[in-house]
Each structure stands twice: as structure tokens, then as C-alpha cells.
């Protein structure tokens, strides 16, 4: 799976505020369709350049990173972006690496959530997300850090209440007070894919940066320049190419897409039983700084 770090969590590691292997770090299951300060429902995503997201009273700030998922129709609106030109109920999507505008890939149909990754106060502490928690958070045991990679024992969430889908798992540093417990990481079962070189229209192969996780055969992903690509073969973690159906248009170098991770387990619908979360056994484990 591909983990996304919260900006305040990243800052905590850099300035020593968070010590992963000695501080109390908890894991929590989240229902991202439940609104909170750091999670807002999306009701619109324009098929334009840039994509304009409608999320009533979102409270996000220009420069915030935002994780977007489950947007129907305009698939290019799903992924991790930087907020620009925010207004009370809308904001534009820009590429967090290049600063370029994200291009729509189709008409919006329904759904979507936006998770603020900070650095603004809309996405910095546990109190901004705890309304969306499902079941009881679990304290990580057996934590290790090696070569910038964070790992821990797998976690079991006991008797997770039955209900709607659970879309993500998050980590936070638990100080005992929600307003000072920094958010660390969130994983919704998707990861970012970056095009490494121009793939021309009609191409059946796309060169990409090394994949953080696998992508199932048949998955359709939307790049930030608006081009859709459908895989015709399984892609594995570490691969540098995607095998796809003939492209209808080119994918520009540096374009990013949000892709489902093979076997991520998210989303899932709890039935009242225990839920075992098994961390990735690959090179990046839970996450890599």
C-alpha cells in the first residue's frame, strides 16, 4: 500500500517532536465518508483545467496537501494534490511537485471525500479526524526504524462495529490529548504513480517511477494531464513500466495518477468481528521518510 504522511507528522520527525520507536503511536480505522475538521465531502469536481473541487465549508488553506478519493466520473480528481485559490466552498487542484494545474478526465458524477494532510490546522491533530474513527484505536507494538523505514507488529482491531465501508487506516502520536496528538500517516489503499517519460498516443507501455505497490490487471487510472490508462497486465511493486490498452492521447512526463494497490484490503465493510491489519512486507513497510 502507499502511505501518505501528514505535513505536521513529517515536521515532527524532522524537529524531534515525534520519536516513532519510543512514543505512543496508535493506529485507527477511518470511515472517510464521515465529516470532521480534516475530512470533507465532495459534491463537485469540474472537468476543466484546473479541476475545481466543491466541498462545502472545507476550511482548507492554500498550500495544503489534500488526499482525494471516491470521486466518480472525473477520475483525475482522485489522488494527492496541493490546494490553490481556495474559497469558502471550493478549491483548485495543482500538482504538488510541478505546481501545474490538474486536468479533468471526465464529467463528475457523484461522491468523493477530501482529507487535509496539512500543514494548516485543518489537518494536523487527532481531534480533526476522530469523528471518523471506527472501533477502538490500537497502540503499535514492536516498532522499529531502519534506513528511514518505519515498521511495527501487525495490529488487530477487536470487534469492529458493523456498518458502512471503512476506507483507510491512519497513525497518530497519542499524547493523551486530541489537540496535541499529531497525525502521522494515512493509507486508503491507493498509491501515487508518476509517469517517467512521455507516452505517446496509441502507446501500450508507460514508463513510470518505481512503483511503491502493485496495481491489479484491468485497473483504470487517470493521470493529472487528463489521460486515462487501463492496465492489461498486473504491475508489481518495484516495476518501472505499465502495460496498458492503446492510449487515446499522450501522457506527459511528470503526470501523476492515483492507483489501487493490489491486495490492500481497503475499502472493506466490517461485520462486527475482529479485523487484522497486516503491514506491507515490501521495502517501505508502514512508511518511508
Main sheet, how many strands, which sense, barrel? 7 strands, antiparallel
Question: Can you identify the CATH superfamily of the largest domain?
Answer: Ubiquitin-activating enzyme E1, FCCH domain
CATH class of the largest domain: Mainly Beta
- Assembly state of the chains shown: single chain
Give the ordered list of helices and strands: EHEEEEEEEEEEEEEEEEEEEEEE
Structure in a nutshell:
By secondary structure, the protein is mainly beta. The protein has one helix spanning 7-15, and strands spanning 4-5, 25-30, 39-41, 44-45, 52-54, 65-69, 79-84, 90-94, 113-118, 133-139, 144-146, 149-151, 155-157, 168-173, 183-187, 190-194, 205-207, 220-222, 228-230, 241-243, 256-260, 275-277, 287-288.
What does this structure look like?
By secondary structure, the protein is mostly beta strands. The protein folds into two domains: 1-188, Elongation Factor Tu (Ef-tu), domain 3 (Beta Barrel), CATH 2.40.30; 191-270. 3% of the residues lie in helices and 32% in strands. The chain contains one helix and 23 strands. The protein has a seven-stranded antiparallel β-sheet, with no helix packed on it. The chain has a five-stranded antiparallel β-sheet with strand order 1-15-14-2-10. A three-stranded antiparallel β-sheet has the order 11-12-23, with no helix packed on it. A hairpin with a 6-residue loop joins strand 4 (44-45) and strand 5 (52-54). It is globular, with a radius of gyration of 18 Å.
Amino acid at each position: 500500500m502507499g502511505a501518505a504522511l501528514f505535513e505536521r507528522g513529517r515536521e515532527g520527525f524532522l524537529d524531534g517532536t515525534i520519536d516513532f520507536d519510543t512514543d505512543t503511536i496508535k493506529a485507527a480505522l477511518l470511515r472517510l465518508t464521515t465529516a470532521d475538521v480534516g475530512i470533507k465531502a465532495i459534491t463537485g469536481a469540474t472537468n476543466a483545467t484546473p479541476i475545481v473541487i466543491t466541498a462545502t465549508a472545507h476550511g482548507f488553506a492554500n498550500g495544503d496537501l489534500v488526499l482525494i478519493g471516491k470521486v466518480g466520473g472525473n477520475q483525475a480528481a482522485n489522488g494527492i494534490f496541493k490546494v490553490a485559490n481556495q474559497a469558502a466552498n471550493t478549491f483548485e487542484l495543482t500538482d504538488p511537485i510541478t505546481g501545474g494545474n490538474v486536468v479533468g478526465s471526465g464529467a463528475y458524477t457523484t461522491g468523493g471525500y477530501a482529507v487535509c494532510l496539512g500543514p494548516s490546522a485543518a489537518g494536523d491533530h487527532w481531534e480533526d479526524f476522530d469523528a471518523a474513527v471506527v472501533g477502538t484505536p490500537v497502540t503499535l507494538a514492536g516498532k522499529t526504524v531502519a534506513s528511514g523505514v518505519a515498521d511495527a507488529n501487525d495490529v488487530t482491531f477487536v470487534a469492529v462495529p458493523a456498518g458502512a465501508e471503512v476506507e483507510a487506516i491512519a497513525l497518530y502520536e497519542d499524547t493523551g490529548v486530541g489537540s496535541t496528538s499529531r497525525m502521522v500517516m494515512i493509507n486508503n489503499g491507493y498509491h501515487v504513480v508518476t509517469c517517467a517519460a512521455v507516452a505517446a498516443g496509441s502507446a501500450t507501455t508507460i514508463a513510470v517511477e518505481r512503483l511503491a505497490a502493485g496495481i491489479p490487471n484491468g485497473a483504470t487510472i487517470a493521470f493529472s494531464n487528463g489521460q486515462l490508462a487501463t492496465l492489461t497486465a498486473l504491475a508489481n511493486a518495484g516495476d518501472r513500466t505499465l502495460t496498458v490498452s492503446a492510449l487515446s492521447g499522450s501522457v506527459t512526463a511528470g503526470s501523476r495518477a492515483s492507483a489501487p494497490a493490489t491486495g490492500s484490503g481497503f475499502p472493506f465493510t466490517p461485520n462486527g468481528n475482529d479485523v487484522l491489519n497486516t503491514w506491507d512486507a515490501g521495502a517501505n513497510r508502514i512508511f518511508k521518510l
